[in-house]
Every structure is written in C-alpha cells, then in structure tokens.
Amino acid sequence: MFAPSASMTQNMGSAKSSSQSALLKSFQNKDGTFDINKAMDTAGMMVNTVSQLSKVVKDMSGWLKV
C-alpha cells in the first residue's frame, strides 16, 4: 500500500491552499476586497454553460440510442 511521505503531504497542502487563494484572488477588486458582482456574474455564466451542455449531452445520447 502507498503511504505518502511528510514532504509530499506538505506539498499537496500548499498546492491546495495556493489554488484556493488564486481562485479567491480572481474575485477581488483592485483594492483587494471581494467583488460579489464578479463572483455572481461568473456563477451565472457557469449555470448557463452547464444548462447548454446538458441539452447537448441529452441530444447526443438520443442519437446514440438509435
């Protein structure tokens, strides 16, 4: 069985925290405060994309059943 070393788990933890901080930084204003409008716009775009993709997948699954 694989057991990660202490240095590997530290690197995974720092990579996770750096990706979270990078995600949060993308929703900050120039002054460093959280921009709720930008976050909501992005969430809306994600919902629209998922909705459109689900329609495409549904149509493609219909083609594959024939």
TrEMBL record:
Protein name: Uncharacterized protein
Annotated region described as Disordered, given as residue ranges: 1-21
Compositionally biased spans, kind Polar residues: 1-13
Pfam families, A to Z: YppG
